[in-house]
Fold this sequence. Notes:
2 domains; three-stranded antiparallel sheet; elongated
Amino acid sequence: xxxxLDEAYCHxxxxxxxxxxxxxxxxxxxxxxxxxxxxxxxxxxxxVGFCVADPAVTATLRKVVTTFSVSAxxxxxxxxxxxxxxxxxxxxRVAEVVSERSRVTERLAALGAAVPDSxxxxxxxxxxxxxxxxxxxxxxxxxxxxxxxxxGVRVTIGAPHENDAFLEAAAALL
Length: 174
Ligand SMILES: Cc1ncc(COP(=O)(O)O)c(C=O)c1O
């Protein structure tokens, strides 16, 4: 059995007990780790990611992957992201998201919203049947959220001024 760990949001994880997927992939030949450049690296538009797994797994993946699915530009950008020179930019960007995540969570809690702890670059607001209306009202204010009708809304953490705009809307609507 193959165990696939989707580590799309791993850079934003601060929980000390989080698993180290790359260590597990090194230890077990049936563990595959998937990573994307769409989140912490900010390259969503380039559609590029990678898999770390035993050569038997990656060889099989190569047989079925769509030919030329990752452009030369995307490959060059992805490789540049992994260079030591890009490390500081990544850690700064992630640190801002993590700090803003705490700030927005605390403010929402102060507004009476029950926001579960997030280890990603987004928050979950469990608004139940109010979800669709909340998202629609936010959209009128220029804030686009992902609503899951009758369950909640997913709020991506943005730049501080964007988060402020969301918090202002949340204060008016919650
Ligand atoms: C859990 C999870 N895994 C993987 C991805 C993959 O992102 P992409 O297709 O942009 O590489 C996403 C993007 O939203 C995600 O939320």
